[in-house]
Amino acid sequence: MTFFSPKKNHDLTREEAAHLTRRCGFGATSNDIERLQKLGLNLGVQQYFERQSEPHNVQHLDQGVTHYLGTDNIEPLASWWLLRMALTTNPLFEKMSLFWHGHFATSNRKIQSPRLMYQQIGLFRGDPFGSFQTLIHQISTDPAMIYWLDNNSNTKEQPNENFAREVMELFSLGIGNYTEKDIQEAARAFTGWFVHEKKFRFSERAHDPRNKTVFGHKGPWKGEDIIQFCVEQPASKRFLAKKLLKFFVHPEPPKEAIEALATLIEQANFSFTEPLKAVFQSEWFFGEENRNALIRSPVDLIVGTIRLFEYQGDIHQAEQLATSMGQSLFRPPNVKGWDGNRIWINAATLLGRQHLAHHVSQYVVSGENKFKSWGNGSPEEVVERICAKCVTGPVPEPILKKLIDYLATAPEESRFSYVAGIIEAVLMLPEYQTA
Q1: Cα–Cα nearest to 386, from 368, 407, 367, 414
Q2: Are 84 and 306 in contact (CB under 8 A)?
Q3: What is the pLDDT of residues 312-338, one digit of tens each?
Q4: Distance, CA of 402 to CA of 275 (rounded, Å)
Q5: DSSP state string for 335-378
Q6: Whole-model pTM?
């Protein structure tokens, strides 16, 4: 598999280690990056796929969120997941779960049940790198998904095509890889898949037992058969490969990379641990064309900033900031989820990103915390220190000069407010806003 040939040098530069932490997680502190450098590439990648015990504060967080599941308010659940991503010892597990949340996009705006949304995310987090066949079957019988795509009203008398269409278009194949007849016939196979008392139920009485023809296969198919047929279509492996590469590597991955990853996915029987390891350990992954190629999503940016600065502010405020930037957890905009990358950036969402940078800069220079020492030293030392802590890679010389000149004008009594301005400016640089 030449496109994903292993990186020749298993040692990691600081920039390479930082690149890996941003793609396999949400960024890291300098100590985390140094630890990854000591491990080297292969052990460093391996650790991301080995589930570690969560610290007590995460366990306590998980226990506390259950008190909100019986309410109508989804915001505490969104805040819980944001904070969990920031505190977890398993960042790639959370990031892959976030990928599935966008892939199988379901919104509480319609479901109106934090408990069902919590159960769905738990489904993703249980084994996010495991069998796709298993996962797509589980999500197809997930109560929130059945409500979301109207399969509760899918009966043999009046087949509803919504569920069958999205299983093909958005979950497994993509547009152009099925016919309208396939959808109509598949909809009949999913009849009788209901939710009763918030649990999945199959109703034999409501199911259409007659023959259906889907992808050329004729028989008295049920929903499970349709799911299997979808996964077996040649387009499925390419569809998943492209989405994974767009999420983890580059917004416009080369066709050769898509084909190469599709082959790896097929060889792994549609599980994702080994294919993703091959991506993260490859020479191509660390290429210049893939560095800072992704605009960080609001969740990625906020969680990464919390982790970097060990921020202990109001997590509910962070959740509101994510919404203002265009990404409300548990409330994707539509069945397609979030388009991502350049869609994240417009006048309104940039203002939200500015607010995040401002809040963090004020946190760093106020109160007693270890980041206050960042303001010690000459203007050159302060600016270089802040850039080194926050940005992976060099900052353009003209920008460095402007930042240094700005700090050099600071009166002694106002120095820390100027340092806050430097931090805010660095957090708004493209080099920080991208991964």
Answers
A1: 407
A2: no
A3: 778 899 999 999 999 999 999 999 999
A4: 44
A5: TT----GGGG-SHHHHHHHHHHHHHHHHHHHSSS-GGGGGG-S-
A6: 0.96
